[in-house]
Amino acid sequence: MTTLQPIIGVAANERRDAGDDMGHMAISYNPSGYIKAVQLVGGLPIMIPIGDPMHAKRYTSMIDKLVLAGGQNVAPEFYGEVETIKSSDYNRERDAFEIALINEAIKQNKPIVGVCRGMQLVNVALGGSLNQQIQNHWQEKAMTQTSHDVLISKHSPLDSIYGRKAHVNSFHRQSLKQLAPQLEVIAKSLDDHIVEAVQSTDSNLRFLGVQWHPDFMYNVRDEDLAFFRYAVFNL
To answer: What is the pTM of this model?
Structure first.
C-alpha cells in the first residue's frame, strides 16, 4: 500500500515590485528553502497565496499541516500597540490572512510550524505581544552561517534534533515579549535571553516555532533538515 505524502501548506509572501529583471512585476512567492526541505523529507508542499481571510477555512481544509514563513514585521495594531519605530516593513493584508489561517488550523486540528515571523505571528494570534525592535539579532554573515548560541529545554522536540545547545543563524528585528497563555518557551539565546523557540501547551493546538531559519540551512546541516522531517511527520 502506498502511503500518501503529507500535504504541507506554506503561507506565501508578496512583493509589489520584483525589480528590473522582472519588469517591475508584482509576485507571490515562497522562499525555496521551505519548499525544497519539505520535498526532501517526503512531504508535498503547496503555496497558499495571501488572500481574503474568508477563504482561510477552505485553504486549511486542503492541507495536513501549515507552515508560516519569515518575512515582514507583524503590524503592532494586531497585538494592541501603536507603532513605536519608523519602518515600512509591514504587510497588514498578510498579517490578517495568516491569522485567519492560524485560527482555522486550530479549529481543524491541523499542526502549525512557525519560522521567525511565523513564530511571532502565532504568539500574537494567541494573545501575546512583541518587542517592536531589538538589537544584535540581524547577522551580517551569510544565511548559511550561524551567529549565536541558543539553550534548548531538556526533553523538548528541539532537544532531540539540535541537543541542549545549538549554534543558529539570526535574521530578525522583533522578538516575543508577552508570551501567549497557550505557549511555553523551549529555547532562549545564550547572551541576551531572547525567546528563540516555543511550543504549545494546549492539547487542542499542535504548534512548534523557532526564531532562527532552518530553511536557510536545510541543505548544509543535518539538524536543520531534521527539523523539517519532524515538522512534516511528527508534529
So the answer is: 0.95
